[in-house]
Amino acid sequence: MKETKAWYVNGGIGVVLIIFLVVWAALLFVQYMSIVLPAVLVVLALLLATGMTIVQPNQAKVVTFFGRYLGSIRDSGLFLTVPLTIRQTVSLRVRNFNSSTLKVNDVEGNPIEIAAVIVFKVVDSAKAVFDVENYEKFVAIQSETAIRHVATKYPYDTFEGHEITLRGNADIISDVLANELQARLTVAGVEVVEARLSHLAYSPEIASAMLQRQQASAILAARKKIVEGAVSMAQMAIEQLDKEGILELDDERKANMVNNLMVAIVSERATQPVINTGSLY
């Protein structure tokens, strides 16, 4: 099923025709006291009246005639279309679907809670009406299915930083979710405008343990940066002394200097200076 344009004309023409037929029927009845021809004209006027329809902005009317799809009306206003047709209204406005909080396992098997907001609109009214039973329920069910599927493809978080994660790559995850949703909802004539995660957290039963793991990982990462900086600073200090010839240090003195610098930089507490009045030997 694909949306097509239905036959319709300006509603003002329909109103004029209906009034003309009614007035003509009244004049014939008064002039000739005949019932047959005026009755036929009134029936024609009523028949035309069944074809009058009003379309609101950002809405479409799906027109069917005794089970046959005749097309859709997307223009807003008053129109005259085929009489005796059924016209079903479909909203073309942008809408939000806020999914419920789902409990799933990520790719590593950790239970997590996840929810998303889906922004969508109908772009094919015929598909939305005829290809699915109820396109709004279809969007809701397929959205939750896609969220579950995407959540099981990626880890919640990684402590090495070398892969895509649900928490660390929100934009990428949103694009993946939107693309998967679009593939599922095309059959219903729905376009996915945007998909964003609205809730993401570890399940309560493992949240405390995962928090400790994250804290430990953060401490290790910070320590690594501090050590790298300390080594770089010690290397720069020795190279500067050698370059300018301020001091001539043998390997043992260089090792002692590096040791002191490392202790001073890496230590969590403030270092206490010790003045050496003697010699290393």
From TrEMBL:
Pfam families: Band_7 (PF01145). GO terms for molecular function: peptidase activity. One of its GO terms (biological process) is proteolysis. It comes from the Bacteria. Keywords: Hydrolase, Membrane, Protease, Transmembrane, Transmembrane helix. Residues 50-214 form the Band domain. The chain crosses the membrane at residues 7-29, 35-55. CDD domains: SPFH_like_u2 (cd03402). This is Regulator of protease activity HflC (Stomatin/prohibitin superfamily). It comes from Anoxybacteroides voinovskiense.
